[in-house]
Amino acid sequence: MADLYEIADLRLSLADMTRKPVFGAAPRMEILKGLSFTIPKGAVMGIVGGSGSGKSTLGRALVRLLQPSGGAVRFDGRDITHLDEAALRPLRRRFQMIFQDPMSSLNPRHTVGTIIAEPLRLHGFDDVAGRVGRALDHVGLPRGFAGRYPHELSGGQRQRVGIARAIAVEPDFILADEIVSGLDVSSQAQVLQLLERLVAELGLTLAFISHDLSVIRRLCSRVLVLYQGRIVENRETAALFASPEADYTRELLDAIPLPDPDQPWV
Amino acid sequence: MSFLQIENLSVRLKDGAPLLRNVSLAVAAGEVRGLVGESGAGKSMIGKAILGILPRAAQVTGGRILLDGTDLQALPPAERRRRIGASCALIPQDPLTALNPSRRVGPQITDRLVDILGWARPRAEARAAELLSEVQIADPGRVLRSYPHELSGGMRQRILIASAFAAEPKLIVADEPTTALDVTVQKQILRLIHDMQARHGTALLFVTHDLGVVSKICQRLSVLYAGMVVEDSPVRDFFAAPGHTYSAALLAATPKYTDPEASLTPVPEAVIAAVQAEVAEADRRAAHG
Amino acid sequence: MLDGRAMVRRRAGWRLWLSAGWLGVLVLAALLAPWIAPKDPLAQDLFLGRLPPFWVAGAEPGYYLGTDSLGRDVLSRILYGARLALIVAVVAGTVTCLLGATLGLMAGFLRGWADVVISRFIDIWMAFPPVLFSILLIAVIGPGLGSIILAIVVIDWTRFARVVRAEAMAQGAMDYVASARVAGRGRIGTMLREILPNVLPTVVVLLTLEMGIAVIVEAILSFVNLSISTDDPTWGGMIAEGRTSIHQAWWVLVFPLITLFLTVLAFSQLGEGLKDRYDPVLR
């Protein structure tokens, strides 16, 4: 099975604006410290870690919202590490992203229909209206929602609009950055079920960033555990939960409060 | 006799929309009670009604809140504030916005003791330092002199917990205190809250949407939907067999990595419809009764 | 959301109607002045000097709000004065807005060297004392309608730039902007399609405020005789003249003053009212 993504020794530093001197550049803070892994086609890859682990930064590097400082990112065999915006634009149709905060990821002054249609128009798709309707169907929202504004929808519905926007351009890969973290338990379950179905129906490759290992267990076939910018574990899901290798993974698992009063915990 | 007794509490928005529908619950002295529900269910609203910090657009339209036997609604406002201030405290959700960013941490803890409870400043300062050690902050002196933005999220939450226990309250309302924290930090903070509660014998009303957290720290729980209590059970009984279809559905939707297939199940439409019908029925009875 | 917004929305209706109503009346008055003004605003008749308004004893029929010390009809002069006030308000307000908002949007969203250059430019520009600057400008160029408008634009564009820059920066950090990038939109496109609609409500409020400010600035300039050089009536000029005869003929000062006040108030409320009515987020 071919790999959709090949990541080799990925490094990424960002300017630490809190320590910027008055004159001169801010010192660089290394967020990703040399990551190497692959994402096979059709896989659902979980990326888990605490805050400061670099998981969001890794996600943004995969969809080239950020430019790596070192190493290489290959997408479907092609090196996209240092491509400029013009070269990336035609490729962008193939990797999409869904964001964490349903409130700020949709333009509050665009209708749902406009929001989903934007990427379609940018990439020159025909029958935009039809595709928008079908995308809404796919995520289980009534077509009439196309005329509504984001603030008229619930958090779960907004998140589904974000998913519709991502799948409308028929991408090969989707990055889901903590997309259920801000949702109610029932909305979370619905969105996850939707995602499972879409991955199967549309043959998507998915990278799912989350801090919640329980969600990852249900959805993902492989798991990448990050700690302070490094990969500490990269295994198949079942194996990781059966016998975690890294100390940090064990710490994460132990910390999770399961809905079970008999779990040895506090 | 319970320390906190809420009887048929109803709260509405000024334009008529109900926020709490006939809520009743009792918390004994030293007990930990969970308030569970999704967003908008009204769990935070109960805590706010007790502490007298309801939003301006909301008002109590019925029922009583009895704190240690005294009906809070019947007291004049100044007296009510004094009573609440003397015996209750809040651990808020967001450690970032709960602390004043332009003042040092120390005065924020001691001001309450000095201005409202009338303590002498040296005694208040000593108590603040003592509390910070109790919440396992090394070097309390340095932390008291720091500004909030100089401290981590976990540290700030510890300070808020310390601050809540400062005046030895009889009841603490913890409003989603760990929702904004990393899972490893959450475990430490929950353990801390549990230990402090046990040590000080404080009653705790723990508001959360996370049933996992409830199973670790609470002895009883109330499940809320649209401002109405649908279940009120001891925790052990609840997790063995929930007493209401809605709460059973919530439990089935809760993530549980030890049982991936049976958890994360969406709440069925039929269950929602049924509980909404219950709410409508309750409204009908209230309008006519 | 339990905030006061629900209550504000109910009151916004009359705010918009009253302010738009007053400004509408003013626009009509300015356009139709030659036909509806009861008297010639420039006609002097010393025998008819300092006549009181129609409800006071000693008034002359036809001079509804009285006359000034040269016998000129106050009401007609106010109607004609509205022309200058509105032209200055609309033109100066709009040009200031376009210049300031565009630079602010570019600085706030594009960041980088565009921000560095524009921000330093704003800082240096704002260091000039505004009133002295405008007087200097007019002294150099000479009085006239163009000079007034230029003076207002030159002073006030920085207000727009600063505020719009801050808004653009805040919006630029939102996820929907990142989403547009992921979708493949270029920077200029994102600035216009995504940021601009979200910055527009603030711009509209500032624009209407600026129009009100323009009216006041013009009034101040004509008060100190630096406005247009002809005899055409201006509200500021009338107030200046009325100052000298305030004890004998208070109406010469008071009526243009009230008109000025109501007009500026109407402009400020218009912006807020438009925002409340048309911003989809507040509906």
Q: Give the mean pLDDT of chain B.
A: 90
Number of separate helices of chain B:
12
- Quaternary status: heterotrimer
Order of the strands making up the biggest sheet of chain B: 6-7-8-3-9-10
The CATH superfamily of chain C turns out to be MetI-like
- Uncertain spans of chain C: 1-8
Shape of chain C: elongated
| Number of helical elements of chain C | 9
Number of strands of chain C: 0
Instruction: Indicate the low-confidence ranges of chain B by residue numbers.
Output: none
Secondary-structure element sequence of chain B? Answer: EEEHEEHEHHHHHEHEHEEHHH
Radius of gyration of chain B: 20 Å
What does this 3D model show about the protein?
The complex is a heterotrimer of chains A (266), B (289) and C (283). Chain A has 266 residues and is an alpha/beta fold. Chain A has helices at 55-62, 85-91, 112-122, 128-138, 155-168, 185-202, 213-219, 237-242, 247-255; strands at residues 3-15, 28-40, 44-48, 70-75, 78-79, 95-98, 173-177, 205-210, 222-227, 230-236. Chain A contains nine helices and ten strands. The longest helix of chain B has 20 residues, at 269-288. Chain B has a six-stranded mixed beta sheet with strand order 6-7-8-3-9-10, with helices on both faces. Chain B has a four-stranded antiparallel beta sheet with strand order 2-1-4-5. Chain B has twelve helices and ten strands. Chain C is mostly helical. In chain C, 73% of the residues lie in helices and 0% in strands. Chain C contains nine helices and no strands. The radius of gyration of chain C is 23 Å and the shape is elongated. Classes of the chains: A alpha/beta (266), B alpha/beta (289), C mainly alpha (283). Chain A binds chain B through residues 50-51, 155, 184-186, 188-190, 192-193, 211-215, 217-218, 241, 251-261, 263, 265-266, and chain B through 38-39, 182-184, 186-187, 190-191, 194, 209-217, 235-236, 239, 249-251, 253-258, 260-261, 263-267.
